[in-house]
Amino acid sequence: MSRTAEQALRALAVLARRGDALTTEAIAMAAGVPAGSLAKIMQALVRAGLTTSQRGPHGGFALTRAPHLISCLDVVLAVDPPPRAPVPDGDALARLILRARQGQEEFYRAISIADLVSRGVPEPHDGQLTGR
Fold it and tell me: Is residue 44 part of a domain?
């Protein structure tokens, strides 16, 4: 998983936990993600229809649907779509790569943002994050 996808998942977990609209800065602080990087990620999530964005004093980003209806695959594909290189017929390595990608997609599809929250995705101030 790319760092961008990980940051997007952390951001959506924050939105799911808090339940209301949050600014980029608030999400970045809670998720431990640089605000500059997160701004681009949040716009990609808006384009994918996973979040909404509202300007103004009570604005911010919010989920467009319940956290249990947003899969990790939805998020990963929104911010980091895989390259769609053609698979040559008879190429064993290409078939292996395709199978691995399909397995990864099935894994991400089976986990929702609600699952991440219920499993306790740590926030940076929890002291549980690795050194990334």
Answer: yes
* Domain around 22: 3-126
Structural domain count of the chain? 1
Q: Are 82 and 70 in contact (CB under 8 A)?
A: no
Are the beta carbons of 66 and 114 closer than 8 angstroms? yes
Does residue 131 sit within a domain?
A: no
Distance of CA 77 to the CA centre of its chain: 9
CA distances from 90 to 9, 85, 87, 96, 100 (A): 36, 15, 9, 11, 17
Q: Which of 50, 78, 75, 44 is nearest to 63 (CA)?
A: 50
40-51 pLDDT, tens digit per residue, is 999 999 999 999
Contacts of 115 (CB under 8 A, 6+ apart): 68
Q: How far apart are CA 60 and CA 46, in angstroms?
A: 11
Q: What is the pLDDT of residue 56?
A: 79
Q: Does a structural domain hold residue 91?
A: yes
Q: What is the CATH number of the domain that holds 113?
A: 1.10.10.10
